[in-house]
Amino acid sequence: MIEMFHYEFMRNALMAAILVSIACGIVGTFVVIRRIVFISGGITHAAFGGIGMGFFLGINPVLTAIPFSLLSALGIGMISRRVNMSEDSAIGMLWTVGMALGILFIGLTPGYAPDLFSYLFGSILTVSNTDIIIMLILDIIILTTVIYFFKEFQAISFDEEFAEITGVPARLLYFLLLCLVALSIIVLIRVVGVILVIALLTIPTVIARQFTNQLKRIITYSSLFAVLFTVLGLWLSYEFDLPSGATIVLVLAALFFIISAVKSIMLRRRS
Amino acid sequence: MNLKPIAQLKNINFAYQTNTVLENINLTIMDRDFLGIIGPNGGGKTTLLKIMLGLLIPDSGEVHLFDQPVETGRKSVGYVPQLVNFDFNFPMSVLDVVLMGRLTNSRPGHRFSAQDQAIALEKLGQVGLAEKKDVRIGNLSGGQRQRAFIARALAMEPRMLLLDEPVVGLDPTWQIAFYELLHELNNHMTIVLVTHDVSVVSEHIDLIACVNRRIHYHGSTRDGIHHISKMYHCPVDLVAHSIPHRSLKGHKHD
What we know:
Chain A is mostly helical. Chain A contains eleven helices and no strands. Classes of the chains: A mainly alpha (271), B alpha/beta (254).
């Protein structure tokens, strides 16, 4: 396993795996407990509009995806408040409009877009130094925000109305949480791609919840599981020449099933 | 006693789109009242409660709590929501839940202080859940969950306790203890209880407000009982029959 890190792209890939795991451990935990998985899916796909725009303008698509995902995060919150529309319909619209914009931009871009697949399905092996720096900055923003507002985020996730009454700006913090989801999606897109992002935001947390019921521990455990399993997925994809994003997701899913099965067998033995 | 108004709602109107839910609501709650807000399902009780807490903004009218605008006054209102709307898989201990009541006194970027912890523990003791503090909230029984939510409301050190449908789905033994607790708390604070269950009101509460789009009655339970029956379209004797058998277990007006 060690010799594969002689290559720079492999060292970048390992760095990316760690950065991705921090983002999905922290934000994924709130996505799962606050039950905003579908919203996160919407934001992810809307971000594809930004990726298309990056191709069209000849800028790093990760950078142009940032305003797109942030705006769609705020949009999802606003539309369902202001307009007479249910939240899931609003999400469905943003989801597809973002994708359509992305496709349109790519259609308008002269020539063929060879990297396109890496944004759809992820490509941890082509992560550049710039990408690493962007991911690192976003991770720092996510981590400090969650540490600073930890008890408030916990409160609004459990009972938004009660938090509001006690003077916590619950609506504002919910928007902030959606923005953190948007940023973490940017961190993840390079590695697993638009289509597979949700797997990394949910599966590590779901596995972590098998072991603990404490919020802080769930965050730590899901980050650790994510590191472990993305590196394992990365190694498998390197050894057997498989697409990295899909391999990482399948490793996560397989381990979820194995751990759940082992746990239920152990519970049955005990009783 | 019972002279100072602590919550005042004036000319409240509220509609969802074109569907009027509340019309010209005027309600004054006095200090140390033990008030039951009753009415049929869909009659606007929960909407009224959310307006009282500033969670919904009325189309017209004013809400004042403790002579303050609702946004500041509500920090002194201990709110006990309905249990049915919660995700009890949520990873939070009983103490964590009760500590939420101390958010009134805390700022982001700071942990709860030792004093906040002490207050939360004291309130848990008051509802008899001290030894459950580290248990996950979802592992409590229905009655225990409700006690935890009452402890959370008490941790706000409120001057008024507001409970939404508190007896739905609870076992009868806990219900008796529950009303004893409320009457005891009533010595120090106002209690407002929202319910659609008329039998609860006639046995335990001596002041009612009947809400069905408007306030149809606000006064003593004994005199208001026929209003209830009118609102529910049920025979008078069915409702009134529990009255002669049980004396109203009111709090002492000394």
